[in-house]
Specification:
By secondary structure, the protein is of the alpha/beta class. It is built from 13 helices and 11 strands. InterPro entries: AAA+_ATPase, ABC_transp_ATP-bind, ABC_transporter-like_ATP-bd, ABC_transporter-like_CS, Oligopep_ABC_C, P-loop_NTPase.
Amino acid sequence: MTLEVRDLSVVYPPRGGVGPARAVDGVDLRIGDGEIVALIGESGCGKSTLARTLVGLVKPSRGQVLYQGTPLDYSAKALKAYRRHTQLVLQDPGGALNPKQNVFDAVAEGPRLHGLKDDLKETVHDALTRAGLRPPEDFYHRYPHELSGGQQQRVVIAGALALNPSLIVADEPVASLDASVRGEILKLLLRLRDDLGLSALVVSHDLGLAWNIADRVAVMYLGRIVEQGTVEEVLLNPRHPYTKALLSVVPSGAEDWRPTLLSGEPPDPTAIPAGCRFHPRCGRWAGASAADRERAACDRRELPVLAADVSGAACHLLDLDPPATDVSNAWENA
């Protein structure tokens, strides 16, 4: 197992009279060797905070991050050693690259910081080649403004690869790219997994990305994983009402297809409701009978944290839900 988090929580202190904010509020998650896990959720659910916690940029308020079974040490020396194995790829490649650095120096920065100066030219050459920038020599002296968005993202990925990590945490890696370029970057991540055995956590709000690239999917809402499993389990047979609402926007081809519109306010980590944190926006709960509401007690009964090795959903209403609609035709055409 490459990376694991146990009962992870990140709480930001009160600010401006508001808070505290429970950005991550009890998460168990595992990423296996050579596995790609997609972390899906809308803005404000805590997925970017979780991503930054995995690479040691944010120290958890509770719980542990374990790499190869060893808890993460937050001393400067230990974090520097850890980041040789775990690299973060950010959403905006233009913002991630220093406009005053050429491509060679941008890719070489990580090895230089870690004292890996021997064969630096070969390291940069190999990293750019793996990232699909060929021939590498043509890019050495270019600056970010001379590159396309897709080329910039490849340079960012090459900078991560220069340290030969075992895990990449990619936070919305294709969100700022044109549709024609997104597929190229996703193919690159798959090729890196196949050729190098690289593991990856890919953070996204795009379910199509999960279908095309991931082995497993974890759906996050208001600081918690509310459903997880293989791609087929989650995307073809969703069980949680939130996952179903996310999937409902994908056209199914059926004549009666209608997307589910979530009511209420978007997730607010400073005001987590009692009971199931999704129940104020849950259409299934809103339409339930008085007897079902009393039996499910979604508005007052806390849900347990989903264990990392369990495929399923954290929902009081599972026993009340009708069988899920099969959306396989929609994904086959995605």
